TrEMBL record:
Membrane topology (UniProt): Multi-pass membrane protein
Record-given protein name: Solute carrier organic anion transporter family member
GO BP term (any one): sodium-independent organic anion transport
GO MF annotation terms: bile acid transmembrane transporter activity; sodium-independent organic anion transmembrane transporter activity
Superkingdom field: Eukaryota
Family per record: Belongs to the organo anion transporter (TC 2.A.60) family.
PROSITE patterns xrefs: KAZAL_2, MFS
InterPro entries recorded: Kazal_dom, Kazal_dom_sf, MFS_dom, MFS_trans_sf, OATP
Location(s) in or outside the cell: Cell membrane
Ranges annotated as biased composition (Basic and acidic residues): 606-628
Region of interest: Disordered: 606-643
Residues that span the membrane, as ranges: 68-89, 138-162, 174-198, 218-244, 289-312, 324-349, 361-380, 484-507, 572-596
Domain Kazal-like span(s) in chain numbering: 402-457
Length: 643
């Protein structure tokens, strides 16, 4: 029963975590915030996790572990429900659009009007009042606090669940395998919710003039969080009814009962004191090991690149290849994530199949990472032209860039703060139909077509009934390049994952057996504090620098970015990843050299390590699931051979 409950809790935390990652773009647009703020929201999960991680590691074995896991799942549920609150406080989402005026026939509207538009109108006085009260506030803090609570709640699940299994049953990995399906389904749910309008069931969908490819589109981000909250709540229920301890398989009941009653007989303060007393000597031994020190720096750089990719990959695909966010999330969930998982398990299988020792694992990990890095550099060849926006990236006829007004729209009194793009027959995108100089239209909603567009006429089409349609112009070359980028990314993800398990096993084989849990804790702590926490923030801040046109909130003020310089975006995003992974390549080479010097073939340490491999062969299956932190010991073996 515990194994089934733990498997579902693994599923629930992976499900909600991947869903939250997939909704970063939707949250950015709904709250009209920058990418750097989204990075802070994303990093709040790591902050919450780190707040209780040390406490869990010290007190975990001394408390009722199933009930602590139940509390953790319940806190995750509360965090998910708290994140949904702004949706019901902010009212309907009013996307940015221009004011149009009806002509005498009442069947056509004119975007070009001598009366200057002051901004998108609110639907009524009540909506205006609600807008003033909520839009300019910081309701995204609900999402931040909710994500913080999710981090706090997730902290005890993995270490306490795994230690409970290790204490009272034979080696079992099925819970971890079942949990692998959680992230995939989370991304699939994210893809579905991103394609559904945020105010589904409240507004007439046919009246919406934008589609999921539009940068103003906001999906039903809150709907998936309700599902995640319910799943986490259900995951907590079985643990409330499980006992403090279980009979250990294959042992005498009397011995087992006396063994399990020992923690209750000890004074908790005294046992904690002993753990603290051992902390600094153990820490000194770990950081006196050069292989472990290099491994920690390698882990930090890998965390930075991985977290940056997971957080902003969907935005990159959308801006670079003209792909909707929903499609990008779907492809990550059904292509990239399964391939990554397959690579991880195949890497572990190869270690067991060929009984690789540490020098062979280091060589294998180093080669696979360098090959993946070289493939990573090919990302730069999947280039795509910058979206041609009149006045931003393309000049009006006879004018230079960054001049929004021209003679063709001088009489229209257009508002430069507005963004409601139209695509002219000339293949140029205009910020609004007003900037295209359009004087009439036909159709309604997203099928509206503007006519008599004077700026479109002036771009080489000559005089006539030049028209423009709602939405940005499609970049065909970008769409054609996307399958090649996806294939390249899939190959790169597989090769990186293939060497991931051998890399992780290097840490287990290079430290003394009784410091393995401590080493995992330090590795996790360093990776999250120096990688998982800052990476989304500085990635987002640098991406913000490539923005060409910021949106405008319904009640004024700068919103989220509408148009990026795709060339600069590509160079910044891919350049950051390439730079971080270049550092990883250097550290892999240093790590390989250190391991070859220390574990020389036919040497004493090499002989000892081969003997030790027999007792650590089971670690391959659990290398990716152990996150037990300082304070717990895995073995009482001598460490003279290793240190």
């Amino acid at each position: 029963i515990f194994l089934g409950a733990l498997a579902f809790s693994f599923f629930a935390k992976g499900f909600s975590g991947s869903y939250m990652k997939s909704m970063s773009s939707q949250i950015e647009r709904r709250f009209e915030i920058s990418s750097s703020i989204v990075g802070i929201i994303d990093g709040s999960f790591e902050i919450g996790n780190l707040m209780v991680m040390v406490l869990v590691s010290y007190l975990g074995p001394r408390v009722h572990r199933p009930k602590i896991i139940a509390v953790g799942c319940l806190i995750m549920s509360v965090g998910a429900f708290l994140s949904v609150m702004p949706q019901f406080l902010m009212g309907r989402y009013n996307y940015e659009r221009i004011t149009v005026s009806m002509d005498n026939s009442s069947t056509s509207v004119s975007a070009c009007s001598p009366v200057k538009s002051e901004g998108p109108p609110a639907t009524d006085a009540t909506e205006t009042l609600r807008c003033e009260k909520t839009t300019n506030s910081y309701l995204w803090l609900f999402v931040l606090v909710g994500n913080l609570l999710r981090g706090i709640g997730e902290a005890p699940i993995m270490p306490l669940g795994v230690s409970y299994i290790d204490d009272f049953s034979k080696e079992e990995n099925s819970a971890f395998y079942i949990g692998m399906f959680g992230p995939t389904l989370g991304f699939l749910l994210g893809s579905f919710c991103a394609s559904v309008w945020v105010d589904i069931g409240v507004v007439d969908i046919d009246a919406i003039s934008i589609n999921p490819k539009d940068t103003r589109w906001v999906g039903a981000w809150w709907l998936g969080l309700l599902i995640c909250g319910a799943v986490n709540f259900i995951a907590s229920l079985p643990f409330w009814f499980l006992p403090y301890s279980l009979p250990k398989e294959g042992e005498n009941d009397n011995l087992k009962i006396s063994h399990l009653s020992m923690p209750k007989q000890l004074f908790p303060v005294y046992s904690i004191y002993l753990s603290i007393a051992d902390f600094f000597p153990a820490l000194r031994k770990l950081f006196g090991n050069p292989i472990f020190v290099v491994f920690i720096f390698l882990t930090i750089l890998q965390y930075n690149s991985l977290v940056g990719i997971i957080t902003y990959e969907t935005k990159f695909m959308e801006q670079q290849f003209n792909v909707s966010v929903a499609k990008a999330i779907f492809l990550i969930g059904v292509v990239l994530l399964p391939v990554t998982i397959l690579g991880m398990f195949l890497g572990g299988f190869l270690i067991k199949k060929f009984k690789l020792h540490i020098t062979e694992m280091a060589k294998f990990a180093c080669i696979t990472f360098i090959v993946a890095y070289l493939l990573n550099l090919l990302y730069f060849t999947c280039s795509c032209e910058v979206l041609q926006v009149a006045g931003l990236t393309a000049p009006y006829s006879g004018f230079v860039k960054h001049i929004y007004m021209a003679s063709c729209n001088a009489e229209c009194s257009c508002n430069v703060d507005q963004w409601d793009p139209v695509c002219g027959e000339n293949g140029i995108t205009y910020m609004t139909a007003c900037f295209a100089g359009c004087k009439s239209s036909s159709g309604t909603g997203r099928n509206m077509v503007f006519h008599n567009c004077s700026c479109v006429e002036g771009q080489g089409l000559g005089l006539g009934n030049s028209s423009a349609v709602l939405g940005q112009c499609q970049r065909e070359s970008c769409t054609k390049a996307f399958p090649y980028f996806l294939a390249l990314q899939t190959a790169c993800a597989f090769i990186l994952a293939l060497g991931g398990t051998p890399t992780y096993m290097i840490m287990f084989r290079s430290v003394s057996p009784d410091l393995k849990s401590f080493a995992v804790g330090i590795e996790t702590l360093g990776g999250r504090v120096l990688g998982g926490l800052p990476a989304p923030i500085y990635f987002g801040a640098l991406i913000d620098e490539t923005c060409l046109k910021w949106g405008t909130k319904s009640c004024g003020g700068s919103g989220s970015c509408r148009v990026y310089d795709t060339k600069e975006f590509r160079n910044v995003y891919l350049g950051l990843i390439a730079g971080l992974r270049a550092g990883c390549c250097l550290l892999y080479i240093v790590l390989f050299v250190l391991i070859m010097k220390r574990f020389k073939p036919d040497g004493k340490e090499m002989t000892d390590i081969k003997n030790a491999e027999r007792s650590t062969s089971k670690e391959v299956d659990t290398a990716n699931k152990r996150e037990i932190l300082p304070g717990s010991r895995t073995s009482e073996e001598s460490e003279e051979t290793y240190m």
